[in-house]
Amino acid sequence: MSHLKRTAAVITAACLLGAGAAWAEPEYVTIKMEIEVAKPAADVWAKVGGYCDLGTWIAPPPRTVPCSVTSGDGGIGTVRSIANGAVIEVLTAQTPLSYGYTQPAKEGKFYDLYHGFLEARPVSATSSKILYTLMYDVSNLADKAAKDADVARRKTQFEGALRNMKAIAEAK
């Protein structure tokens, strides 16, 4: 190997090692939530399980949040735009009573590998549970207090969404 190639290799390796030190190690958190519903799972899912139904349950009624499908056919790979493009999510998993999604990376922003999973699970012939699980990286937050506050904020928001879904599903 020539002196020039060896020098270039050393500089490249040093840059890569130095760049890695600038990023925090991922620190994933999982928030698991559920609520019981006095309706069969299929009935619950028919009322709140559409990929853009979140516009009706993510905020406290009577408020709605704009949601539209921007690409796809409703199956895996379908993209939804929430709050006029403030949040973009891609459908990554789907069953008759559940779906999973992720938020893609945005240029110039920290990527937190955010995933959500929503499911209506049968408990009996006349009752079910709605389960909502979030998983994301909190390594970009300053300290444990900031991480705990972020988890608490999201848990509060999505537990409110679960209560809204329950009310919608149980409505006559």
Please, could you describe this protein's structure?
- This protein has a single domain (25-170), classed as 2-Layer Sandwich (Alpha-D-Glucose-1,6-Bisphosphate, Chain A, domain 4).
- 34% of the residues lie in helices and 30% in strands.
- The protein has 4 helices and 7 strands.
- The chain has helices at residues 3-21, 41-48, 54-57, 144-170; strands spanning 28-37, 67-71, 79-82, 87-95, 98-102, 115-122, 128-137.
- It has a 7-stranded antiparallel β-sheet with strand order 1-7-6-5-4-3-2.
- It is globular and about 45 Å long.
- The model is unreliable at 6-22 (pLDDT under 50).
What is the CATH class? Alpha Beta
CATH topology: Alpha-D-Glucose-1,6-Bisphosphate, Chain A, domain 4
Tell me the major beta sheet: 7 strands, antiparallel
The order of strands across the largest sheet is: 1-7-6-5-4-3-2
Oligomerization status of the protein chains: single chain
State the total count of DSSP E strands: 7
Shape: globular
Radius of gyration: 21 Å
- Unreliable stretches (pLDDT < 50, length at least 5) are 6-22
User: CATH homologous superfamily name?
Assistant: START domain
| Portion in helices | 25-40%
- Give the topology string: H per helix, E per strand: HEHHEEEEEEH
Distance between the ends: 78 Å
Please state roughly what percent of the residues sit in beta strands, choosing from under 5%, 5-15%, 15-25%, 25-35%, 35-45% or over 45%: 25-35%
CATH architecture: 2-Layer Sandwich
- Provide the residue-averaged pLDDT: 88
What is the tally of helical segments?
A: 4
Instruction: List the domain count as a whole number.
Output: 1
The secondary structure category is: alpha+beta
